[in-house]
Write a structure and sequence with these properties.
The protein is mainly beta. The chain is about 5% helix and about 50% strand. The chain is elongated, with a radius of gyration of 25 Å.
C-alpha cells in the first residue's frame, strides 16, 4: 500500500496489518412526501464520502530511528489531497482526519498506529483510457460506441478538433453530441478553428474552446459501465472533417 509515495507495506520498516477499503461508500437518499398518496417520492440518490481506515506498525532498531520513521509517516499522511494507492492499478484521493499512535514505554523500537482518511470523492480510479476517431467530410451523423470500464459511471472528456489544416476557420459552426442510451444531447456552437479544440468535460460540467469557457446547451450525461453508443453531427455550417477523442479514468467502489 502506497500513501503519498511512501510504501507502508515494505515489510522492513512498515507493515500494514489491516485496511478497511472494500466497503461501498455511504449513500445519501432524499425523499419528500406526496400529497394524498402513501409513501414518499425519491428526490435525490447520490453517493457520499468514504472513510478508509489503516492499521499498521513501524519498526526500527533504535529509539532515534523509530522517531524518525514516525516523523516520515506523519509527514506523508498529513499531505493535503494525497494519493492513496490500495492496489497497483487503483488509487484514491484522500485527506487524513485522525491518527493515533499509543506510546508504549516498554517498547522503544516498535510502534502501532491507526489512521483514518476521508475521501471526498468516494471512488478509486484506474489509469486513463482513451478512444478516438475521425469523422469524414460530408457526414451528416456519425455513430460510435464508447465502452466504459469500471463499476461506476464515467465522466469523460470529449475533445473535438477540426481536421484538414493547421490554422484558420474550419467552417463548422455547431456540433451536437448525443448519448444514445439516455437520449441526452450536448450542443456546442461558435467558430471551430483548426488549432482550437473544443473540450466537453463531463466530470466538471464545463465546455472550453482553447482553454476558455464556451457556451453550450444540453446535459452532461453519465456514461455507465459497458457499451455507450453516441452520435456526432454537424448541425450548422460546413460539414468538414473533424477528429474526436474520449478520455476517462475507470472508477470503482473499492
Amino acid at each position: 500500500m502506497i500513501v503519498d509515495g511512501l510504501d507502508i507495506s515494505d515489510g522492513t520498516n512498515f507493515i500494514t496489518r489491516e485496511i478497511t477499503v472494500k466497503s461501498a461508500p455511504g449513500r445519501v437518499v432524499n425523499s419528500a412526501g406526496i400529497s394524498r398518496r402513501p409513501g414518499d417520492k425519491l428526490t435525490a440518490l447520490e453517493w457520499s464520502t468514504k472513510e478508509i481506515e489503516v492499521k499498521g506498525s513501524v519498526f526500527s532498531t533504535t529509539v532515534s530511528g523509530l522517531r524518525g520513521l514516525i516523523d516520515t509517516l506523519q509527514l506523508h499522511f498529513a499531505t493535503r489531497s494525497l494519493i492513496l494507492a490500495v492496489d497497483t492499478d487503483r488509487s484514491y484521493t484522500a485527506n487524513l482526519t485522525r491518527m493515533e499512535i499509543p506510546n508504549q514505554f516498554f517498547n522503544n523500537s516498535y510502534a502501532e498506529y491507526e489512521a483514518t482518511f476521508l475521501c471526498v470523492d468516494p471512488f478509486s480510479y484506474a489509469d486513463q483510457v482513451t478512444a478516438s476517431g475521425t469523422i469524414t467530410s460530408g457526414t451528416v451523423t456519425a455513430t460510435g460506441t464508447l465502452t466504459v470500464s469500471g463499476t461506476v459511471f464515467a465522466g469523460p472528456t470529449l475533445t473535438i478538433t477540426p481536421a484538414g489544416a493547421n490554422v484558420g476557420d474550419s467552417g463548422i459552426r455547431a456540433l451536437k453530441v448525443t448519448h444514445v442510451p439516455t437520449g441526452e444531447t450536448m450542443t456546442i456552437s461558435g467558430v471551430l478553428s483548426y488549432n482550437a479544440p473544443y473540450i466537453i468535460d463531463y466530470t466538471n460540467y464545463l465546455v472550453t474552446n482553447s482553454g476558455v469557457s464556451s457556451d453550450y446547451t444540453g446535459i452532461f450525461s453519465r456514461w455507465e459501465p459497458g457499451q455507450n453508443q453516441f452520435t456526432l453531427a454537424v448541425i450548422s455550417g460546413v460539414r468538414n472533417s473533424f477528429n474526436y477523442k474520449f478520455g476517462y479514468q475507470p472508477r470503482f467502489y473499492q
